[in-house]
Structures are given as structure tokens and as C-alpha cells.
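User: For my dataset I need records formatted as: sequence, then C-alpha cells, nothing else. Please produce one.
Assistant:
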Amino acid sequence: MSILWGLVVAVVSAAVVGGLAYLTGYGHGPGSAAFEKLPLWLITLIVCRAGVVEELFYRGYAIERLRMIGLGRFWSVTIPLVVFSLGHWSGGAANILIALAAGIILTGFYLWRRDLVANMIGHGLVDFVANVVPKLFS
């Protein structure tokens, strides 16, 4: 079931993130140019790491740990979401906005299903399709 839900998360996230990337013109700045110069194997490793590690720490660990130490649901969700979004600062304001939107979707899904594996699959697929697939066909 996690694979299926991961595909659902990926489709929803890709639609929102793709729309925001289009509206903001993201992908044409200096941060994107530097990232695109990296070898394909490194980009692949980075996007796989992002899907697993970011979901594990920003959703799986941070939300649960903040709840455990006594923060309410709002702060337990908001703090990791803000840190996740601002962690994408190297791509500029558009990337922060895109990360915030993706983070809201991923956080909402995690709170609803509590399926961290599906989140990892969805996050990884979106990053893979956006960053690796175009280089494979260029």
C-alpha cells in the first residue's frame, strides 16, 4: 500500500510543485545552474537522499519528537515545516516557496496516513522526475 500511496503523493506534489515552478520561473537561476553542472550519479544520489532523509527527519522524527516533549500539534508541525522550507534557501525565494508547498502536502499526508515510507517514495519520485529524468533525455 505504501507504494500506491507514494505514487498518489508524488502526483499531487508534482502538480503543485510543477505549477509553482512554472509560475515563479524556478529552474533558471544561478542555484539551478550550479546544480545542473553536477554529474548525473551525484544528482541521483542527492535526490534519493532527500526523499529518505528529509522525510525521516522532518516528518517522522521532528513532528513526533516535538509532540512527545509537549508541544501542541500546531507547533509540532509548523517548526519542522519552516525549517524544511528555509533549508532550501540556496535555490532562492522560489525554491523556498516550492519547498513550503511540497512540505505542506507531505506533512498533511503524513499526519493523515502516518505512512513515512509512502512519503519517502513520493518525495523521492518528485525529485527524481524533476532532476534526473530530464538529464537522462537531454
